Amino acid sequence: MSGVRVLVGTRKGAFILTSDGKRERWEVNGPHFGGWEMYHLKASPADPNRLYASQTSGWFGQIMQRSSDGGKTWETVGNKFIYDGVPGTHQWYDGTPHPWEFKRVWHLEPSLTDPDTVYAGVEDAAMFRTTDGAQTWHELKGLREDGTGKQWSPGAGGLGLHTILIDPTNPKRIFIAISAAGAFRTDDGGGTWRPINKGLVSPQIPNPTAEVGHCVHRIALHRSRPDTLFMQKHWDVMRTDNGGEEWREVSGNLPTDFGFVIDVHAHEPETIFVVPIKSDSEHYPPEGKLRVYRSRTGGHEWEPLTKGLPQSNCYVNVLRDAMAVDSMDKCGIYFGTTGGQVYGSADGGDSWNAIVHDLPAVLSVEVQTLR
Amino acid sequence: MIRIVLPHHLRTLARVDGEVTIEIEGQATQRAILDALEARYPVLQGTIRDHGTLKRRPYLRFYACEEDWSHAAPDAPLPASVAAGVEPFLVIGAMAGG
Q1: What's the pLDDT score for residue A356?
Q2: Which of A173, A224, A288, B74 is the most exposed place for a label (fewest CB within 10 A)?
Q3: Which residue range(s) make up the domain with A313?
Q4: Average pLDDT over residues B87-91
């Protein structure tokens, strides 16, 4: 029987939400690793029982977990993330040089074909890869040494590599995004990288159209169109149709084009979802109304989706890794809030229900479609 | 025999209850104790001391015999009562909210 498994990372542990294909009744399992910040959990597309999780703590540092039974049991795996060579410096918030220091793993992206190969995006920004099921990790240092690394500076949340997208048609082509450096692409499996930020405009940096320095919050793609990427930037929703060679703004009629998440409908490559957030510092929905906005036209024209979402006195945030879609016949969309709610829609966003109300602040949401 | 008291989350990681006891050869120092602890429980590598530098993580403290040893040299001899297992070596998480 088909179903879905939603993997939720929170500030105080991980939770696994499971349901059948109807997605009406849910079983909630957790907390796993209670008390730890679970930045991200993600399953291998090649083996749905193989899960990876990033477990972190300001006290005890980075721990990595792996499950081979769909999250029923976990084993601790390698946590040694050492930059390759002498890492040197990036820029601090005030532009002064600051040494590269590993802090945590923000994002895990398992290979599309090999359950033992996983990419990890870390803070301070770098890309690591394991090919032995997370026992050992090795930096793909070409990214940090692409020539612009010395100019990267952290966003308010840190210098985190938070998005990794593997081209389904060419696994050697990988897109990543770093706050606040921008988006980058490799065409050779991670050996060499280059910035892909042409078209981004960020008035917060000295040269608003600089090659790097843009605070990209999230990028997303549909597996059938790997040249088309959608981006939620600090401000502005953007798209590219040539693999990042050039971006254009598609914010259109959004009430604010600030936000963190962006995702693409599983079956409609031009249908995208964002959650507008008020900023620069408020980081809650405009007017206290939690609204997902959907565009069926790849941007520009957006409609608010409100059915089942709180439309008054709602002041939560939706963080960058906290939205995911399933690939059931009727695409399901899920997102988690800093208020501890995980909302799900089983009808493409038309209506929403809170699967859980009272978890710790949600850091990440991923979903597996189980068949 | 040397007794070590770990914070709750490290006991969970190492899958131990209560105090940990280890045997070391030679002088009882922070480095010798932590090397032996990590050898017995590899999952603790990187959680008390940073990988590579082996520096104490900033939110952890080391106490023994009601004294703070956090800033002592890693190779400084610990009190005889710790070496004899009379008093434990304590790894303490700094008090912090959140």
Answers
A1: 98
A2: A224
A3: 36-329
A4: 98
How far is the alpha carbon of B56 from chain A, nearest alpha carbon, in Å?
10
Residue A43 counted as domain residue = yes
Please tell me which of the candidates A58, A62, A82 has its beta carbon nearest to residue B59: A58
Listed by start position, the domains of chain B span 2-93
Number of domains in chain A: 1
Q: Which residue of B has its CA nearest to A81?
A: B51
| Among chain B residues, CA nearest to A74 | B13
Query: Closest residue of A to B93, CA-based?
Result: A59
**Chains A, B: CB pairs < 8 Å:** 43
Which CATH class name applies to B2-93?
Answer: alpha beta
Contact A59 B9 (CB under 8 A): yes
Please give the model's pTM, rounded to 2 decimal places.
0.96
CA distance A105 to chain B (A): 14
Mutation pick from B15, B44, B51 vs chain A, by most beta carbons of A within 10 Å, is B51
Residue range A125-177, pLDDT digits in tens: 999 999 999 999 999 999 998 789 999 999 888 999 999 999 999 999 999 99
pLDDT digits (tens, 9 = 90+) for A343-371: 999 999 999 999 999 999 999 999 999 98
HEC profile of chain A:
CCEEEEEEEECCEEEEEEEECCCCCCEEEEEECCCCEEEEEEEECCEEEEEEEEEEECCCEEEEEEECCCCCCCEEECCCCCCCCCCCEEECCCCCEEECCCCEEEEEEECCCCCCCEEEEEECCEEEEECCCCCCCEECCCCCCCCCHHHCCCECCECEEEEEEECCCCCCCEEEEEECCEEEEECCCCCCCEECCCCCCCCCCCCCCCCCCCCEEEEEECCCCCCCEEEEECECEEEECCCCCCCEECCCCCCCCEEEEEEECCCCCCCEEEEECECCCCCECHHHCCCEEEECCCCCCCEEECCCCCCCCCCCCCCCECEEECCCCCCCEEEECCCCCEEEECCCCCCCEEEECCCCCEEEEEEEEEC
CATH number (domain holding residue A246) = 2.130.10.10
Q: How far is A60 from chain B (nearest CA, A)?
A: 4
The question of ipTM being above 0.90 is answered as yes
Q: pLDDT, tens digit, for every residue of A262-294?
A: 999 999 999 999 999 998 789 999 999 999 999
**Confidence band for B94, pLDDT divided at 50, 70 and 90:** confident
Cβ of B7 within 8 Å of Cβ of A82? The answer is no
